[in-house]
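Because discrete structure vocabularies remain unfamiliar, we turn briefly to a single example record, giving the amino acid sequence and backbone structure tokens:
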Amino acid sequence: QFDAIIANPPYTRQEEIEDVMEEGYKERLRALIKEHLGINIGKRSSIYAYFLLYPYIFLKEGGRMGQITSNSWLDVDYGKYLQEFFLNHYKIIAIIESKVERWFEDADINTVITILEKCSNEEERNNNLVKFVQIKVPLKQLIPEVSDDVSDEKKWKDEEIRWKAIEELVNLIESVKETYEDDKIRIYVKRQIELFDEGLNEEGKYVGAKW
């Protein structure tokens, strides 16, 4: 088991999974999730959904997972399986997206960074403050880029500046306790139990909500 897992799964639409893999591959994925996690994930789920679910069995308690994927799970039907699993097994640390740019220029898809912390304590999960982060400027305005066309000494200095900026951004996201906004970033804060309650139907079954 691991302290941390990071991933950037393929941006393959569910209709294309068996075009690039052998026949029956998708059903084997669904069977794997059912066997190990007890979830009957929807047949329309994109391949990244399996990447978001399966690493749970490899994480230590308190371990964190960060993935950059399509943002479609936030409001599509099969997203309810991911939402419910996250709410019941993780503290949702942050969901981060840009409002001004695509982070991969060659990918015709809007992406989101999801950061989760494995947590078996229901009370801790319920009281966790989820941060929905909207970046309002190009990312390089928050995290400076490092050029290859400079001396090694200059590159090391630029790397130090870059990592300091990353640490400052992480500390800001993790430290805020209520909604925060400036000219570069907006952080909307919500208790995790409220997200869960919003997705319940009249029978008390989780059916998903738009996050």
